[in-house]
Amino acid sequence: MNTIETIEQTIQENLAVMLYFSAPTCNVCHALKPKLLEAIDRNFKEFTIVTVDISVEQEIAAHFSVFAIPTVLVFLDGREFLRKSRHMSVDEVIREIRRPYEIMIS
Known about the structure:
The protein is an alpha+beta fold.
């Protein structure tokens, strides 16, 4: 089970972190998640991924101002860099992360 504290610590201690907010009732979330995680894994070696189930972890969703699912938050070097909700493509997320990520790890 995640806590706000453990997630904040993960964000501070890792160069690149993705928070993936979803719920068991969200079909889009389940279709997107494996594709997105595989693409992140293939393209970016230094990513830590945290999945948040908002049906049991509402306070975490509220803390990060997440009110729709699926939502992806990407933190680079401890700062929120990207926020995508509902309608997103895997390619779009990868494209938006690539350049700043590569600059950061070079």
